[in-house]
């Protein structure tokens, strides 16, 4: 059985894109850093690549990037980092380093795992993460009911809008069956939401009580708001009952508690409270729905702006889902206008990335262009998450650009009174849309506006940070062909370390008291050897990199690096220290060998390959032993030449 340095789990509310994007990001980051990792995914098709107890036991660290419950208690005894799925996509390397860091506490059932946010106390992080993941757990289990039920109801309309009504002249028995199945399935979404919110917090007993609470609020008109309140209330009640029953010995009363006491008392207490709360919750629900519906006629443009901003703010996250859930609630009431705008706002962002890479191909890397083309397909099927990598690249610029396009698409949809009777499917459900061609046109208009803005933004950043190869011929916002255009390194480059390491850049028995002194020594060493022109500038860049995260690795190695206009050429420096020093390393050991990289300001990211190659070398015990035993610069140079 293969052994892994790290294991992890990813999951998102929809279980479609975020889950697998985070998986891929973590796997690539681990490979880059020289570690083996296995990721368990919690998608709509269920759990894939499930971790075995043996694999968990052998791992040194655990990364959980999930918006749904993945049972973290099975990782007890390991260093565990728990974050939302978006962080797994945006900051995979940071999470891996934290999972292997000696500063990350050992996880115990019911205790706090390190969250990497650094914004609040441990207790607050744990509570916030639990609330968020439990809500997303409920939403992820609810969505398939919404989609399946909604689409079947919409298909029944092929025979006429009243084809499921036995009193109508349009009545069709098959349409009636479809409508009944769809309506019954849609009716389960509120109880399921409440059930799986509670299940994420209070396990199986919470599932039972949460389902009952959701059913009670569904019958009483509490809707989605009632399901959320009922789910959390059920979890609190079950957890309190478990605490009260703790004095009862598990051996004798475990079965009685789980099968009889907890469900009976939990359902009674939670049900009684929900029965009393249904009135005010229904009033709030009705008021909110009426307020939103009022915008459809009085201010459709304002409603479009609100929906567009919500849907394009976090691309499948909780704000996006709030707009989507409101749309499905109104859909269940027979309002097909609201969902039309929500769908338009969700479809526009991924299409925008496709238009952006077509309009300014030179500003995007090969992988980004490929992702943009794939997003034409994802967007057409109502999957917004494909826009995340583009939004994450320059979020303060790109997210507002996405919002503008989504708001335009939604506003034009509302102004045109377009109806979409299905909650998902994208352009697949065009036969069910009352004005299909106009709806597609407005979505494309919104996506094009965002695409133009994204292309301009990408071009602006590409001028200050040139690093991409020339794109094909069509290029609206790019520069002229073959005019001082930097070309990225070819994928066939070997990135041999011997190309950037000379014996004059290797120093033995360097006597420095601490990390700061070592970095100053490196900066001065670089100037002395003609590799840089300003030691203070290089030193400042070293410090800036250390503030992001420590470059202390494992087994006594550190890999600091600096990128600056003062650096004349890519180079590698090696220091063997006389006495080990503290460097906040991943394994907590002191550092006795420093391998540093000097990077010119206009480096085409080839230094990442050199860093990656070095990190991989430092996972091989035989290489480490030989490097530790080397006594002269010539021996070290020869060792790296052979790699």
Topology at a glance:
Elements: E1 6-11, H1 18-33, E2 37-43, E3 46-48, H2 53-58, E4 61-66, E5 79-83, H3 85-90, H4 92-100, H5 122-156, H6 173-187, H7 189-219, H8 223-244, H9 250-298, H10 300-314, H11 318-332, H12 337-359, H13 366-380, H14 388-393, H15 395-415, H16 436-464, E6 506-510, H17 515-528, H18 535-548, E7 557-558, E8 561-564, E9 571-581, E10 591-600, H19 606-617, H20 621-629, H21 633-642
Parallel strand pairs: 1-2, 1-4, 4-5, 6-9, 7-10, 8-10
Antiparallel strand pairs: 2-3, 9-10
Helix pairs in contact: 5-6, 5-7, 5-11, 7-8, 7-9, 8-9, 9-10, 10-11, 10-12, 10-15, 11-12, 12-13, 12-15, 12-16, 15-16, 17-18
Domain PTS EIIA type-2: 499-643
Protein name: PTS fructose transporter subunit IIABC
Membrane topology: Multi-pass membrane protein
User: What characteristic shape results from the CA principal axes?
Assistant: globular
- Number of domain units: 4
| Rg over C-alpha atoms, rounded to the nearest angstrom | 29 Å
Indicate the percent of residues in helices: 55-70%
Describe the biggest sheet?
Answer: 5 strands, mixed
Kindly state the mean pLDDT as a whole number? 81
- Amino- and carboxy-terminal Cα gap: 28 Å
Strand order of the largest sheet: 3-2-1-4-5
- How would you classify the helix and strand content by structural class? alpha/beta
- Unreliable spans are 116-125, 466-494
Could you tell me the strand content as a percent range? 5-15%
β-strand number: 10
Counting DSSP H or I runs of 4 or more residues, the number of helices is 21
Keywords: Cell membrane, Membrane, Phosphoprotein, Phosphotransferase system, Sugar transport, Transferase, Transmembrane, Transmembrane helix, Transport
Organism: Lactobacillus gasseri (strain ATCC 33323 / DSM 20243 / BCRC 14619 / CIP 102991 / JCM 1131 / KCTC 3163 / NCIMB 11718 / NCTC 13722 / AM63)
Pfam family, one: PTS_EIIC
Subcellular location: Cell inner membrane
């Amino acid at each position: 059985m293969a052994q892994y340095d790290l294991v992890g789990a990813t999951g998102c509310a929809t279980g479609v894109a975020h889950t697998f994007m985070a998986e891929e990001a973590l796997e690539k980051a681990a490979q880059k850093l020289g570690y083996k990792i296995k990721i368990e995914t919690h998608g709509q098709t269920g759990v894939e690549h499930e971790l075995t107890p043996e694999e968990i036991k052998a791992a040194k660290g655990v990364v959980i990037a999930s918006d749904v419950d993945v049972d973290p208690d099975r990782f007890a005894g390991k260093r565990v980092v728990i974050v939302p799925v978006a962080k797994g996509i945006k900051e995979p390397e940071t999470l891996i380093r934290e999972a292997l860091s000696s500063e990350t506490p050992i996880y115990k059932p019911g205790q706090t795992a390190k969250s990497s946010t650094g914004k609040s106390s441990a207790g607050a992080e744990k509570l916030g993460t639990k609330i968020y993941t439990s809500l997303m757990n409920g939403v992820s289990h609810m969505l398939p009911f919404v989609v399946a039920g909604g689409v079947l109801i919409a298909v029944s309309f092929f025979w006429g809008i009243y084809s499921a009504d036995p009193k109508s002249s349009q009545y069709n028995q098959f349409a009636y069956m479809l409508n009944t199945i769809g309506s019954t399935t849609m009716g389960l979404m509120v109880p399921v939401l409440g059930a799986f919110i509670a299940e994420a917090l209070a396990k199986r007993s919470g599932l039972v009580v949460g389902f009952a609470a959701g059913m009670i609020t569904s019958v009483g008109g509490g809707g989605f708001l009632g399901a959320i309140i009922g789910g959390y209330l059920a979890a609190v009640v079950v957890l309190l009952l478990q605490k009260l029953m703790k004095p009862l010995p598990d051996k004798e009363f475990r079965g009685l508690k789980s099968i009889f006491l907890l469900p009976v008392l939990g359902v009674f207490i939670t049900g009684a409270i929900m029965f009393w709360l249904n009135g005010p919750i229904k009033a709030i629900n009705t008021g909110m729905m009426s307020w939103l519906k009022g915008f459809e006629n009085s201010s459709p443009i304002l409603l479009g702006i609100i929906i567009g901003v919500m849907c394009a703010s976090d691309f499948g996250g909780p704000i996006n889902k709030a707009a989507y859930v409101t749309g499905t609630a109104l859909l269940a009431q027979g309002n097909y206008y609201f969902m039309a705008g929500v769908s338009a706002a969700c479809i526009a962002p991924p299409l925008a990335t496709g238009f952006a890479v077509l309009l300014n191909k030179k500003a995007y890397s090969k992988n980004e262009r490929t992702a943009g083309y794939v997003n034409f397909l994802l967007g057409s099927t109502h999957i917004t998450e494909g826009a995340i990598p583009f939004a994450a690249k320059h979020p303060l610029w790109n997210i507002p650009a996405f919002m503008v396009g989504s708001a335009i698409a939604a506003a034009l949809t509302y102004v045109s009174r377009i109806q979409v009777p299905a909650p998902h499917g994208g352009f697949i459900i065009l036969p069910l849309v009352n004005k299909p061609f106009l709806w597609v046109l407005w979505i494309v208009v919104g996506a094009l506006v965002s695409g133009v803005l994204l292309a301009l933004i990408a071009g602006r950043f590409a001028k200050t940070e040139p690093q991409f190869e020339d794109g094909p011929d069509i290029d609206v916002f790019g520069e002229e062909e073959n005019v001082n255009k930097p070309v990225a390194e070819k994928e066939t480059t070997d990135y041999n370390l011997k190309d950037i390491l000379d014996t004059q850049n290797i120093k033995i028995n360097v006597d420095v008291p601490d990390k700061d002194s070592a970095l100053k020594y490196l900066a001065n060493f670089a100037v002395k050897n003609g590799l840089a022109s300003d030691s203070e500038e290089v030193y400042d860049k070293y410090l800036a990199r250390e503030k992001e995260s420590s470059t202390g690795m494992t087994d006594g190695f550190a890999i600091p690096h600096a990128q600056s206009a003062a650096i004349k050429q890519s180079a590698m420096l090696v220091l063997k220290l006389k006495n080990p020093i503290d460097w906040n390393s991943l394994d907590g050991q002191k550092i006795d060998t420093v391998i540093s990289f000097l990077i010119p300001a206009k480096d085409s990211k080839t230094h990442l390959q050199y860093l990656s190659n070095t990190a991989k070398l430092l996972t091989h015990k035989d290489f480490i032993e030989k490097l530790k035993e080397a006594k002269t610069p010539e021996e070290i140079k020869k060792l790296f030449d052979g790699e």
